[in-house]
Each structure stands twice: as C-alpha cells, then as structure tokens.
Design a protein that fits this description.
Blueprint lengths: L5 E5 L5 H9 L1 H4 L7 H8 L4 E8 L2 E10 L4 E9 L6 H17 L3 E7 L3 H9 L3 E8 L2 E9 L1
Parallel strand pairs: 4-5
Antiparallel strand pairs: 1-2, 2-3, 3-4, 5-7, 6-7
Length: 149
C-alpha cells in the first residue's frame, strides 16, 4: 500500500463536483447522508469544518470532512474514496490523523458509523479506534468510535 503516495490538501470548490458524484454512488450512499454541492459549499465556509481532498499519486482520489470541536478534539465526520478496495482509505485516515496532530494538537478523534457498515467498523478497529457508545438512528444503530493520541 505504501506505493500509493497519499497526500491531503484543503479542498477547493472546484473539487466538489467529483465529491458529490462519489457520494451518490450506490455503494457509498447507503453508508452516509449525502449532501448537495450547495450544502458542501456552505459547510466549507464554516470555521470549524475542514474539508481535505485526498490525492493519490497527484490525482484526486477522495475527500475527508472534519469538524473541530475544541483545541484538542476532532470529529472525523466523513471519508469518501472514489475507488474503493485498494487501501487508499486506510492510508488517507492515517494521513488525516497526522494532519490533525500537526495542525490541531489533537488528542482525540471520534467518529460514528452505521451498525450495518461492517467494512468501515473493521477498518476503524484495525486502525486503533475503539467503540465507546451506541445510539439509535431510525431503524439502525450508530456506533461511536474514538482514538486518543
């Protein structure tokens, strides 16, 4: 996986068409609550929301959305990768963690994932995230994971 050369950069508005299209894919849309381009543009203007574009070998490959809760706590709100199954997402998450440590003096990153997203849960556990809470969301459960640094 290391040959993938993953880098993160603040997302540009020009990237949003790709990001919205990736969110609409059937195998992505079932795991997230997709946003319109306008919703993403509005979110990007929020001072506590950070959009990061994931580049693999200089090509746009996905994106990450973070919500800054405090000086030391970051909510890992979303990751969407255009081509799944190649390990890009795992490397992007590791790059995101490093980004948070460097830019926010982060001590804790947390996220939520639907109970039926077994692949996501597997990856988060593999990367050292631990479940700390569950709650109902409609007919499903949301599982909350965290990682301390």
């Amino acid at each position: 996986m290391s040959q993938l050369n993953i880098k993160l950069f603040p997302t540009l508005a020009a990237h949003l068409d790709d990001l919205v299209a990736w969110e609409q894919q059937a195998d992505v849309g079932e795991f997230i609550l997709a946003n319109s381009k306008e919703q993403h543009l509005n979110s990007m203007e929020e001072p506590t929301i950070q959009y990061l574009s994931v580049f693999q070998n200089e090509q746009l490959a996905g994106f990450i959305i973070l919500a800054l809760e405090s000086e030391t706590i970051v909510e890992f709100r979303r990751i969407v990768i255009g081509q799944r199954g190649a390990g890009i997402g795992q490397l992007a998450i590791q790059a995101m963690e490093q980004y948070c440590l460097e830019h926010y003096a982060c001590q804790r990153i947390w996220l939520d994932v639907f109970d039926f997203n077994e692949r996501g849960q597997h990856i988060y556990r593999k990367l050292g995230y631990r479940e700390f809470k569950r709650c109902r969301h409609g007919e499903h459960q949301l599982l909350f994971f965290e990682k301390h640094f």
